[in-house]
Fold these 3 entries.
Entry 1:
Amino acid sequence: MRSTVATISSHSALQILRGAKDEGLRTALLCLKGREDLYSRFRLADTIIKMDAVEDLLEKGVQKRLLDENAVLVPHGTLISGGRLDEFERDFKPPVFGNRHILRWEYDRDLKDKLLKEAGVRIPKSFRSHADIDRPVIVKLPGAEGGRGYFIAKDAKDFERKMKRVSEKGLIKEGEAEKAFIQEYVVGATLYPHYFYSPISKRVELLGCDRRYETSIDGLGRIGARDQLDLDLIPTFRVMGNIPIVLRESLLTDIFEAGDGFVSAAKKLVPPGMIGPFCLEMICDEEGRLYTFEFSGRIVAGTNLFVGGSPYSDLLYHEPMSMGRRIAREIRTASEKGLLARVTT
Ligand code: AMP
């Protein structure tokens, strides 16, 4: 029986389903309540499995339907934000494309730092205590949805003043200030390269790059400095969309070096290592140095820009190759060679 590609109805689902169809695979959509109409407009799902919430993925009935369909689940960002990753790792029976164990490393700030350090990439310096701040920092509040209330501080005094302000505004709970993540603020351009690692060809591919379009931070530049001060605005970093980037060609050496380093680190720390799509969230400073401040160990929504392929996928494949299609191709190739276990966990 041919494989079915299954995914949850959000994030990059349309692209994943379309990619599966392009590779001649069947598709199943795990459709969240209220989204049926949206997804039916695109006619990409052969089967629809209804769910009230992301956690329903763990229900026996849902899992049985996926197993009956011979489905491989393609995880994306919505699965991570749904939490309960321990249970997902342990109790979810159908095969998952990629390394299901790395999702927890993406979710947990300490594990994330450990993996990035092992990858040998340049990371913005982090500070244990605000007393140690010796350069501009970005302060990331625990549980801040959409980055609401993140602030920039230049020294310990500035930190205390601004922390007081965010707690007065109720953006941080009492006693939680200590849990804020303090990281060097890198002035530069954000870049999110989209990588794919194939355990079959043992190659790291670059399939695209984007930057995010975030509200309200990307709108603040449209308000004059004086009005910004008067309005006492608190910026948020909620992603609303993505903007394509083509990288300066001489940056590609460092981009690939970072991707290769990440794949080696994952092999060492998170067996069986990286499989499929991942993204390193970077800032490039004025000297052209790349700093990695986050990673995603699965498909990122920025790849939605390239349903018809990107400049990089075109150089590699000479046919439209989205990340969704690249995933489906890996599933198809692996299953034709009897190697599905090598690309799933
Ligand atoms: P995050 O919640 O870590 O994804 O950060 C939200 C946004 O803050 C990012 O999209 C960047 O625009 C910005 N940002 C995060 N970390 C840094 C940093 N170390 N230096 C400069 N900007 C940052």
Note: The longest strand covers residues 203-216.
Entry 2:
Amino acid sequence: MTAPAAQLSPVARDELPTHVAIILDGNGRWAKARGLPRVEGHRRGVDSARAVIRAAAQAGVKYLTLYTFSAENWNRPQDEVATIMRYLTVYLKRECPVLNENHVRLEAIGQIHRLPDDVRNQLNKTRAALAHNQGMTLILALSYSSRAEIVDAARALAQKVREGAMEPGEIDEAAFAHHLHTRHVPDPDLLIRTSGEMRLSNFLLWQLSYAELLVTPVAWPEFKAKEFRAALEEYARRHRRFGGV
Ligand code: IPE
Ligand code: IPE
Ligand code: MG
């Protein structure tokens, strides 16, 4: 059972981000610095995912999006891609009971059709097994490209206008957001990027418009519950103005 959030998190509930998005970066560099193959960084990164998901659920975060694999990541060496896909399948199967204990639901965004069959099948199984949960929603961004998502939304809206189901004047921000993969999810309040790079790498470009940004030098394989809680504390100290005063 998950203990009540108040006992575990130092961050008051009203200062807690509803939605945290993470660009989990630095697996390869972490491994290389230790004379290990890059994929060893990915293997260790799975432990960080487990720790951070649990910490987020226990803190009372409602949505956690993990940028797990980008559409651009298909361009990596074939054996690295294959290993990441294998870890993903193993993770989705093995962690299902742990996610369930933490009352976590699972969703995925991205070009899911491009994933290998075994990843897609396991994703569907795990998602179905967790569908009844009422706690945090974990969203995995898989083969995700924000620009592709935006283009798809524009195309879907154009199609509706052509079919006469919509007037061009009805296309507003809400209608546009409704055609993104994140249509049922509030925008992220906090974006964390591990391993120091100051860039978005084609992640949630629309949805991050007003997110607080936090880049930590810590590599993803070293980023655990303590680092995640420190990020929540940093967020609680920020003043969001949304263009106001
Ligand atoms: C993040 O770590 C994991 C994925 C992008 C799949 P990297 O593999 O990008 O590690 P670095 O950035 O090369 O160190
Ligand atoms: C971003 O990391 C993608 C994921 C974390 C899945 P990358 O390592 O692919 O990004 P770049 O290449 O440094 O921009
Ligand atoms: Mg990287």
Note: The first helix runs from residue 5 to 8.
Entry 3:
Amino acid sequence: MKTSVSVIKADIGGCPGHSTCNQKLIDNAKKILKKSRVINDSYVTHCGDDLELIMTHGKGVNNKEIHKLAWNVFEGLTDKISKKEKYYGAGQDLLKSAFSGNVKGMGPGVAEMEFEERKSDPVLVFMADKTESGAWNLPLYKIFADPFNTAGLVIDPHMHDGFIFEVLDARTGKTVNLTSPEEIYDLLALIGSPSRYIIKAVYSKKKDIASVTSTQKLSQMAGRYVGKDDPVMVCRAQSGFPAVGEVLEPFAFPFLVSGWMRGSHNGPFTPVSQGNARCTRFDGPPRVIGVGFQVTNRKIIGHQDLFDDPAFDLARQKSGETADYMRRHGPFQPHRLPDDEMEYTTMPAVMKKLRGKFK
Ligand code: F6R
Ligand code: MG
Ligand code: MG
């Protein structure tokens, strides 16, 4: 019997501004999913202004009924609540009006995996706000390829062979599989450019799914600025996969990601508790939450708020210091993104105005 985990998310309106998701949206989404007969179990949360639906079922990935259920939640709550209460950017991520079988390409972010449940299957879901899909590149590399992060790569015979990384070129839409440890330099050459090359999935050498991410590029889909992707990632842990603590370890360092204010600034990726998943300072800083649970007979058992822990206080402290340091650059790079990576710019208008003044 195979089990599927689908995480489908969308920003259907922030309150206030782009800071967070109103509790009414979360409560109503919970009610709808609890009543659904299409799925076996669900967990609803938010990260910043993104509403996150975690669902377990037996229908596989890219299933029409599952995608339709998520789309109906987003569309229904946009009409019933976000628009009525005039939340900011109501229905922001619903780029198309008619559902046609799959939410991919319609605005919401999707990360799904299907697997045969092991004797025990711990699953961790990470959800981010104010950053791009490539933000998972650094932690995924550390989790599955870096022995200084993951002790099991060296000392667990079941992990010693390494992993396979599936990398998407967001510009061409093509993917390439690279193995670790054999091809780590090639892998790093690509994923060190996270705005273009995005780790889409990780597999064991036996081809068991270990991790998946959402890899939508909203800006390319919409052809205009509609916010960063605010991606999600799902990881399986233990017994041949990295331990829960090895999956969490990279987040002890608040590395720089692009996004933050107006999707156009670099800032520290800050691990926070679900209670602190609100973007505040300069619309951020970019945040990540983690929820872990056991998947048991297609049910979600014992969910835990993984970053609600003093062990991550130092990362938060460092993030505050890094945010201060970066903010002091104001409109200068490298705080502000390079011109071609900014989500919107006044540059053409400024250049037009100054054209005659350039001598
Ligand atoms: C970033 C984001 C926000 C907005 C900013 C301006 O992804 O959503 O930082 O870009 O608040 O929003 P507008 O232009 O809607 O006032
Ligand atoms: Mg928003
Ligand atoms: Mg968002």
Note: The chain has a mean pLDDT of 95.
